[in-house]
Specification:
145 residues; single chain; mainly alpha; 9 helices
């Protein structure tokens, strides 16, 4: 039991360590409200991820995945594993038709597909099946297909 507690304590400590980019930026963020946003603005990848997850959870209620997508992309383009996972979670939601605008969701996925996210072939097809012919035509035009 003590080993388990020690392991959990170590993992919790590591999870809250500031990432290297934020340390390099030398950001001094005040404790309390706004601390996480300050750390994210300073480039702290963990803070960006935590805000991205919050945006993702909110998007599941509101149907607007714009902010979660932006943060997931920001991290994923830096080869951040948490960011790659967040971006894939957003892509799955888009493919299930959970974004408020199917045309925009299609365009976003085609854009990311061009950046090497090969798993999007199937997900784009899944979304296309949910779209009307008019929506699909508009989305393909917007995406340059």
């Amino acid at each position: 039991m003590n080993r388990l507690r020690a392991g959990v304590a170590v993992l919790a400590f590591i999870a809250y360590l500031p990432s290297a980019p934020a340390q390099e930026a030398g950001a001094e963020c005040p404790q309390g409200e706004g601390w996480l946003e300050c750390r994210a603005a300073a480039g702290d990848r963990l803070a960006i991820y935590r805000l991205g997850r919050t945006a993702y959870e909110e998007a599941r209620e509101t149907g607007d995945f714009s902010e979660a997508l932006r943060m997931g992309r920001e991290l994923a383009y830096q080869q951040d594993k948490n960011g790659e996972r967040l971006l894939k979670m957003v892509h799955l939601q888009l493919s299930w038709g959970n974004h408020k605008d199917f045309v925009q969701a299609y365009d976003w996925m085609v854009e990311d597909q061009s950046k090497g996210f090969d798993y999007l072939d199937k997900l784009i097809g899944n979304l296309a099946e949910k779209m009307t012919p008019e929506q699909l035509a508009r989305a393909k035009e917007l995406a340059g297909e």
